[in-house]
Amino acid sequence: MSKKTAHINTDKVFAALADKNRRKIVEMLHQKDSTLLELSESFEISFQGLSKHIKILESAKVLKKTKAGKHRILSLNQKALKDALRWMTHYSDFWNQSFDQLEHLIQQEDDGKSK
């Protein structure tokens, strides 16, 4: 996968996770693979509305469907979530380093004032 393709999918992952219902689906599938019917028992939205959320998560490659008999089992795609986490970690590291440098500068300034 090219960097451009990876960024496009990361954008889709973040867009998909922007909705609280979709985050709840991810949380539930993190606990246990489920069918759409099983998931629907935990939501106060229509089956059609839940199905729409599932399609958005599928489009972002956050989850995948596998066929088991006449049922389709939904499960998380760890790779898509790891790619998003890797992106966030990159920027988290940047900000942590920036704050460490700022703290060091403030400490130097405080040390200079106390002399």
What does this 3D model show about the protein?
Helix 1 packs antiparallel against helix 4 (47-59) and helix 1 (3-17) crosses helix 5. This protein has one domain: Arc Repressor Mutant, subunit A (Orthogonal Bundle), CATH 1.10.10. It has helices spanning 3-17, 20-31, 36-40, 47-59, 78-113; strands spanning 63-68, 71-76. It is elongated. Helix content is 70%, strand content 10%. The termini are far apart. Strands 1-2 form a two-stranded antiparallel sheet. With 115 residues, the protein is mainly α.
Short key terms for the protein model shown above:
single chain; 115 residues; mainly alpha; Arc Repressor Mutant, subunit A; two-stranded antiparallel ribbon; 5 helices; 2 strands; 10% strand
Compile the SSE list and pairings:
Layout: H1 3-17, H2 20-31, H3 36-40, H4 47-59, E1 63-68, E2 71-76, H5 78-113
Antiparallel strand pairs: 1-2
Helix pairs in contact: 1-4, 1-5
Could you write a compact summary of the structure shown?
The chain has 115 residues and is mainly alpha-helical.
The number of helical segments is: 5
- The CATH topology: Arc Repressor Mutant, subunit A
What's the CATH class, please? Mainly Alpha
Distance between the termini: 57 Å
Strand content is 5-15%
> Overall mean pLDDT score?
86
Largest sheet: 2 strands, antiparallel
Instruction: Tell me which CATH architecture applies here.
Output: Orthogonal Bundle
**Global shape:** elongated
